[in-house]
């Protein structure tokens, strides 16, 4: 059953990845993600259904528009393949559970937000703000766990984590406004919701990992001469990566640290 679940979720991830390409392009521009249908930006021809198969169509077309030969960025199939792989990993990690839909939603918005932040240095409210309600609803379902044992304490912990991480980032932006944007503060609340649900250790590790990973990346860019001390580096992607470090490794890291004490 687990193998079948992983395969089904991976295919779902490929399709979601195709949609995320649309989201990443249109949301920062304030455009609808459902209308008009996708078309070639050069010749304007609509993309045919058989040319819209994730990854496969790009390979068949050799990365070019069927009508005008315009180059299609390799990022499109990479986003689709990466989303499919991340969905499969999530399914393998949770197995058949009510936790899985909540985690898949987090994966999907993480891919979209990370790419948008890299492209525009923005974290759009159109994605972040609804994620409070969607994330809370999906985590409430996971806490209820129909057919199994409910754990409402996890949902309470999630709400506390949401408020805590939002407050921490809000204080940080007051202390050093140039260090991050308010979009990071709003995203922190969503990530705190998830990290809190997974536990206090996940919350602490997820918060700390974002700064460690982001700092190491910035230092690497400085050493390589790719950035200067005052260069603005999107922090949203590192918040998202740090959150997954907290979710996956938080408890193990917390236990290790407690053992040292």
If you had to describe this structure to a student in words, what would you say it looks like?
It is a single chain. The protein is mainly α and about 260 residues long. The chain contains 9 helices and no strands. The protein is globular and about 65 Å long. The protein starts with a helix and ends with a helix.
Characteristics:
261 residues, mainly alpha, 9 helices, globular
Q: What proportion of the residues form beta strands (DSSP E)? A: under 5%
Structural class: mainly alpha
List segments where confidence is low: pLDDT < 50 over at least 5 consecutive residues.
none
Helix content: over 70%
Distance between the termini: 41 Å
- Helix tally equals 9
H and E order: HHHHHHHHH
- Major sheet size, sense and barrel closure: none
Judging from the principal axes of the Cα atoms, what is the shape?
A: globular
Oligomer: single chain
Mean pLDDT: 93
Q: In total, how many beta strands?
A: 0
Backbone CA Rg: 20 Å
């Amino acid at each position: 059953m687990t193998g079948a679940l992983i395969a089904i979720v991976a295919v779902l991830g490929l399709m979601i990845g195709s949609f995320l390409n649309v989201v990443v392009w249109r949301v920062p521009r304030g455009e609808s993600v459902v209308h008009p249908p996708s078309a070639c930006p050069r010749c304007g021809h609509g993309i045919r259904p058989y040319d819209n198969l994730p990854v496969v169509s790009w390979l068949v077309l050799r990365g070019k528009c069927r009508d005008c030969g315009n180059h299609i960025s390799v990022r499109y199939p990479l986003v689709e393949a990466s989303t499919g792989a991340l969905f499969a990993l999530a399914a393998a990690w949770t197995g058949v559970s009510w936790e899985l839909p909540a985690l898949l939603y987090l994966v999907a918005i993480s891919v979209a937000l990370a790419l948008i932040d890299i492209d525009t240095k923005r974290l759009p409210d159109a994605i972040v703000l609804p994620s409070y309600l969607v994330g809370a609803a999906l985590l409430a379902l996971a806490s209820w766990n129909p057919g199994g044992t409910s754990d409402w304490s996890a949902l309470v912990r999630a709400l506390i984590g949401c408020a805590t991480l939002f407050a921490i980032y809000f204080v940080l932006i007051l202390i050093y406004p140039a260090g991050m944007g308010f979009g990071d503060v709003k995203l922190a609340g969503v990530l705190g919701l998830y990290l809190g649900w997974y536990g206090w250790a996940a919350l602490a590790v997820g918060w700390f990992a974002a700064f460690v990973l982001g700092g190491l990346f910035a230092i690497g860019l400085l050493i390589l001469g790719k950035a200067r001390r005052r260069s603005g580096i999107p922090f949203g992607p590192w918040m998202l990566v740090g959150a997954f470090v907290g979710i996956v490794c938080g408890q193990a890291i917390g236990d290790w640290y407690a053992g040292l004490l």
